[in-house]
From TrEMBL:
Compartments reported by the entry: Cell membrane
Family membership noted in the UniProt record: Belongs to the autoinducer-2 exporter (AI-2E) (TC 2.A.86) family.
Region (Disordered): 372-392
Native source organism of the sequence: Microbacterium testaceum (strain StLB037)
Transmembrane domains' residue ranges: 36-57, 63-84, 91-114, 175-196, 258-276, 282-307, 328-361
Name this polypeptide is given: Predicted permease
Keyword Cell membrane attached: yes
Length: 392
């Protein structure tokens, strides 16, 4: 006993070392603020990477946009090419026939709009002038009307801008934009040809670095992307065609001029969810207001609302199915973001690309197994209370 009582220091030292090993000192990064700081740094890094990616895409839009559009059209028209090849048509001939159909449809829609507007431009411009004069006369009857001097100054300012060098620069910029559009269109057609002809082989080449479960996941991502884009394009085109035909018949009955180009615009704008239908209705109502008066314009608005209700309640659930399971709030947010980043093309591509991202998430862990964080949580069974009531 005396021996142990004389030398207590070694045992105490061992206990101190054991306690230090079991409970290491708390780091500044281990508490709540430390974890928050780590998450903040991670978020900043991710945001910087996304910003860099968007900036890089904006620098090569002349290549990226035709590439994305070609992928969308190939997803939509790929089944046509495969059907022709199953019927014994050679691969090159089947691809050329499908490509010719795509080009004819796109060029035909553009020609209908431009040709109709050019042929009716004189009539439409004269009606617009008369409508503007009537609106101006009505406006001056209001108690809060702006004095005529200020209106004349505004008109003179517009005339000065049109005849200025700044307007000429804007016109030259428009010519450059047209040249870029033609270049991008030709590039899209070339890329689309190769996608339709050798799309599966090209995708298999991209998948060569992957093996095992990573290969299976990459295959699911590719298949889901093509399925979502193809279903989106075919479903939206079907809905847009029904909208355009319904509004075209209504405009013909009401004898509104430019009924055909307005119907084509309805078809094209239908590819922009929510916003496109509203814009098409406003354009049709404005033309009716200028040429036929306010009563016909109100009737046109009623026709547009009726057609849109038919589309939203009956056509989209049947034709689109489960392809576009995106909430309306999400659609509006991605439309605003796409417009801010990419302008008109960003508006057109925002929703289908978002649908693709969500589709990839839903097959991340398997054909019907979403990613862990995206799985729907099961509700807990309510705890019964006294008297048969539930705690929920």
């Amino acid at each position: 006993m005396g021996l142990f009582s004389r030398h207590p220091a070694p045992r105490d030292a061992v206990n101190s070392v054991a306690q230090a090993v079991e409970t290491p000192p708390r780091s500044l990064w281990a508490d709540g603020f430390g974890r928050l700081a780590v998450r903040a740094v991670q978020i900043i890094v991710v945001v910087l990477l996304l910003a860099g990616l968007i900036w890089g895409i904006q620098q090569v839009t002349l290549v990226i946009i035709p590439l994305v559009l070609a992928l969308i059209f190939a997803s939509a028209f790929g089944p046509v090419t495969m059907w022709l090849r199953r019927k014994g048509v050679p691969a090159v001939i089947a691809t050329l026939l499908t490509l010719l159909a795509v080009v004819v449809v796109l060029a035909g829609l553009g020609w209908l709009v431009v040709n109709s507007v050019i042929n009716r431009w004189d009539y439409l411009s004269s009606q617009a002038v008369q409508g503007f004069q009537k609106a101006q006369d009505w406006y001056h009857t209001l108690p809060f009307a702006v004095p005529q001097e200020q209106v004349n100054e505004a008109i003179e300012g517009i005339k000065t801008f049109v005849t200025s060098a700044q307007f000429g620069t804007a016109a030259a910029t428009s010519v450059g934009a047209i040249a870029s559009f033609v270049t991008g269109f030709v590039l899209m057609v070339v890329i689309l040809f190769f996608f339709l002809k050798d799309g599966p082989r090209m995708w298999e080449f991209v998948l060569r670095p992957f093996h095992g479960s990573h290969y299976d996941r990459a295959r699911r991502i590719g298949d889901k992307t093509v399925t979502v884009l193809g279903s989106y394009m075919r479903g939206t085109a079907s809905v847009a065609a029904v909208d355009a035909i319904g509004i075209y018949i209504g405009l013909l009955i009401l004898q509104v001029p430019l009924a055909l180009p307005l119907a084509v615009l309805v078809f094209l704008l239908a590819f922009i969810p929510i916003v496109g239908a509203v814009t098409a209705g406003i354009l049709a109502a404005l033309v009716a207001l200028v040429t036929n008066g306010p009563i016909v314009a109100l009737i046109v608005v009623g026709v547009v609302v009726l057609v849109n209700q038919l589309e939203g309640n009956f056509l989209q659930p049947v034709l689109m199915g489960r392809t576009m399971k995106l909430h309306s709030f999400v659609v509006l947010v991605v439309l605003a973001g796409g417009t801010a980043i990419g302008g008109i093309l960003g508006t057109l591509l925002a929703v289908p690309l978002t649908a693709v991202v969500w589709g990839i998430i839903t097959v991340w862990n398997g054909p019907e197994e979403p990613a862990e964080w995206a799985r729907r949580k099961k509700r807990r069974n309510p705890v019964p209370l006294a008297g048969g009531e539930s705690s929920d």
